[in-house]
Amino acid sequence: MSRLSARLLLTLATCLIAPAAIAQTPSPAAPGPAPERPSLVVTIVVDQFSSNLFNQYRDRFTGGLHTLASQGLVYANGFQQHAMTETCPGHATVLTGVNPSSAGIPANDWIDRATGQEVYCLAAPENTLAHGRNTDNGPVGPGNLRATTLGDWLKAREPGTRIFTVSGKDRGAINLAGHHGDGVFWMTDGFGFTTWVEPGQTAEARLAPVAALNARINARLAASPPTWTYTRPECRALEGDWTIGTQTFHATLPPARGFKLDTSPVLDELTLEAAIDLLDTQSLGRRGVTDVLGVSLSGTDRIGHAFGTQGPEMCEQMYRLDVALGVFLDRLSQVPGGVVVVLTADHGGSDFPERMQERGYEDAVRGDPALLGRINTALQARFDLTTPPLSYGGSGLMVVGEGNIELADPRRDEIAAAAVELLRGEANIAGAWTIEEVLASPLPRPGQSPQELTLMERHRLSAVAGRSPDIVVSQWPNTTTVPGSATGTLSTHGTAWDYDRGVPIVFWSPGMQGQERFFPIRTIDIAPTLAAIVGVDTPATVEGRCMDLGLGGACPAK
Fold first, then answer.
1. Catalytic: which of 11, 67, 87, 188?
2. What string of H, E and C letters represents the secondary structure of 476-520?
């Protein structure tokens, strides 16, 4: 019997065991026999899937997330170790092996100091969008990413390697693909899965891998428009009304504000359908080389922002995501050359403060909306300024003059220092620094536990000269920075605290035996670990460390 057949039989046998029997069987001391080099590496990033959310539902999963949690190698204490826990920098760490400070992606966007205009993290104005409309985040591409990815490393060794990624968001797909993706797709409203087009390319050629898929999905959605209602009674029990400012938010399904595909479980189900389609149509893992498939699932994040994390909406999202991932893993198990899967998240998140307060978190509050105006008034009086000198941009504060253009030195430095002094005197501010102070601070020592990093060290790992804001600020834990709206955004993420930094990291291969590892690792450790499994060298610039998983390959000697 071949090794692959043995692994498949073990997988089938495990699926036939009653859940109670699985729960009573002690975990073995180590993963199963090391497989040969896999023909496919699959990276799944669940947007805003915090360790807290993973652990909250872990014993209720019965599908793909159950398979990963019970049969995989689970690091429940994984970390996005940097401070600015947003989607773009978080995704940039996963397959590059470097922190956002080295990847060049400090946040989802930043301010161009010369023009005062907001710059999207993956903006590429030289490109166009394949669906022919300037929607989403405008023309994009990987140019702003200053690091290479696992797919890039494999492509350099084996030009025949194929790299395909798919997501609900452009930044999820692009950051996982790197600079040499063969197909990088994300969902756009009213069209289907799209991509970017570089000068000299055609939209038809770029969309060819998903053209039939888009036609099939659009025809199905037109014939039977999707809905979102209850599949689990325990989710219905989480219904309630919450006062957000002067409005009432009704936590219920279907959503009181109406159904939107982007803020429903359907988004991830379509993304996983696209991943399966690419797996089959592109013959991934079936051509004698190691291919890369990246899947970024955006639904949990969109639902978390719109409805919070502790209501019926997120409850149903968790169960439906679990089912959809089960179908996906079943298909991956059929790849003849073997597959290694890693699941993680780009950041965590928490619930909206009004519900948190009712559940005992008395310090859960929304940020002071008058803070920026109060600081600006004080600075205008002190420096005799006619316009407010601080504006918000790039997840921090900028020191600006007329037209939102950055002030020239030395006045900019004087105002920035004064603003930091004022901010540090505010009751809800845990830390404030000029960007120069952050960039001058030392990086954490190699291998330092992400749980031990100081607040400054966390911000240092996010800081990028010329892209990070002039003033870096952290509010105290459980402070939600968005004002909140019963018809818009209820909660967010992006802080330096562990509920936003903590993410699960799970490695899995069909037929392997489960194991739990309690010690913390970082998302930057994923890429060098996978590189060892597939036998490809990593660049000297990689900041993560290789972890021995017992899944083949060997970590480089230290």
1. 87
2. CCCEECCCCCCCCCCCCCCCCCHHHHEEEEEEECCCCCCEECCCC
